Amino acid sequence: MARSLSAKKMAAIILADNPEVIKGLQSGTIKHMIVPFNSEPEENNMFVSKFLSKAALETLVYKVGPVEEWLNEIVDHPQLDYIRNYVRRGDKPAYWEYHQRRVYNEGDQFLNKKISIEPYEILHEFDFIYSDEGELFFVLVIMSMEYVVSLAESNISRYKKWLLQNPGKFPLQSYDEIKVKKGENVNDWLGKKLSFYSK
Questions:
Q1: What is the 3-state secondary structure (H, E, C) of the chain?
Q2: Is pLDDT at 147 greater than 50 in this prediction?
């Protein structure tokens, strides 16, 4: 599993390309703005679908790269032709389905003493998981949004089945990781274990 951690907060930036709006903001004549806010990315986006499919193939190569026989297997494997053709040409199928959901809130902090003695934010992480049927899924989390794509099928039905069989679970979540609540003393958690899942 790969992940990126940060303890810094990010500021919101609003881009304005209208010169009159820019002048009004600078002079103070514009004091209020109504800005549309979308808390989650649009679903079923072709660009996101192509990005995830390409990232899945490249990450697979990255993971097995040191073993030449496995690398050749990826290059020559006919089952991966479907997703390769989709990434390169965008046809047959015309759309490669992905699943997206929020797995935690932006700004949430975590503590794992194996990684850091300070709380941290998870900016991104990724890995592969198998379904019970042996289908390989690429799971990518960016700024608390989980994206999942299958490397074998253009639909995501088996991952949806996995979600129904594992309610409340997040496939990349570490059992050593504890979510820290705001205002909580981090030292209260040191040395303790917490299970994220209950049956």
A1: CEEEEECCCCCCCCCCCCHHHHHHHHHCCCCCCCCCCCCCCCCCCHHHHHHHHHHHHHHHHHHHCCCHHHHHHHHHCHHHHHHHHHHHHCCCCCCCCCEEEECCCCCCEEECCCCCCCCEEEEEEEEEEECCCCCEEEEEEECCEEEEEECCCCCCHHHHHHHHHCCCCCCCCCCCCEEECCCCCHHHCCCCCCCCCCC
A2: yes
